[in-house]
Amino acid sequence: MKITIIGAGYVGLVTGTCFSEFGHEVICIDKDRQRIKELQSGNIPLYEPGLDYLVMKNIQEQRLTFDTDPVEGVSWADAIFIAVGTPSSRRGDGYANLSFIYEAAEEIAPLLNGYTLIVTKSTVPVGTARQIARIINETNPGAEFDIASNPEFLREGAAINDFMRPDRVVIGVESARAADILREIYKPLYLIETPIVQTDIETAELIKYAANAFLAVKISYINEMAALCENYGADIIKLAKAVGLDGRIGGKFLHPGPGYGGSCFPKDTLALIRMAQEQGAGARIVEAAVEVNAAQKARMIKKIRDSLGGDEAGKVIGVLGLTFKPETDDMRDAPSLTILPALLEKGAKIQVHDPKGMDEASQFLPAGITYKDTPYQVCEGADALILMTEWNQYRALDFDRIKSLMKESLLIDLRNVYDPEALKEIGFRYVGVGRS
Questions:
Q1: Catalytic residue chosen out of the listed positions 28, 229, 264, 379
Q2: What does the mean pLDDT of the chain come to?
Q3: Backbone angles phi, psi at 306, to 5 degrees
Q4: One domain for residues 183 and 217
């Protein structure tokens, strides 16, 4: 198959690269000339494990190319996947900014040559595919095309595996021809018996929001249970394990922490709430999850402050991890962006380390934060050490060495990674989430 991807950001680049690894011929098109120049040279402008290798491999094998000009890619393609960004248009109100989606539709419409399948890969509100079809019909009344929805389910840090070995592939279509093309594109996954869920377009558009909102609810739920455990002196780790062993519930996403962040959950929960409100339907459980998530970040600030004796002014705080999760440089809605400025504002001196996220973090965190080259430099003279993000590099640190570097032996583990008893034996005062 000949496939064109509109948008060479995170979703578009991963999608195009993996399709080329399947054996398809792929062109990724993006208006950002610098990004395309870097990609043509095999340089990846984002961090995703394994992606750089696959991009270079498929460039060398001449299945993957990059361009800024859509003319050749659009007229040549059997299928065009729109994978441009859909950020929130007005901060906090849930509306998705679909201007990039509609610009893409207007751009490709006059270039269509023969039957083409147009597929939305971006996460978009219900009804977006219909609007794309309307734009194409109005711009090019003679165009022969079908519209389809094929939502992505990529976890940052595990996107290659998620694409190559997905739990399911969702295709929202209106015609047998469109379904046949998408099934042919994903044919390599039949070998591992990947479920293909075929739906109407509206259902496919809604599935991504419903899945992400459910996962956000699980995270907020276990964070509320963690607070209850702290009040009763119970252990959230054992509670979560026992609950998760119920086959109807499952253990994934039952890990307490400082709240969810990233490019999907905050945006998609708000968008789902907005869609429900516009239809006069309820989304009260999702609304509660959003409220709990905001409260969790505030609760972490209080936990840190209380651990420091109620006042962080003048205290040196070391922080391990800044990104919203490990194995990504993504800082979007990371808990650190809420927690650290609040501590800095009250007079704390903050020194931080992150394996991949410090350049990105420096663009969003306020001035006054010191960035260190190693985890151990973060500990020098610190009154407290906070684990903010559970990178693997932080799981086997030398805590005897860390203790010798710190002014006070206080560890605030916001991810419950470390063994409290082992650290207490070394001489640390340990503070976790939902456990003592």
A1: 264
A2: 95
A3: -60, -40
A4: no
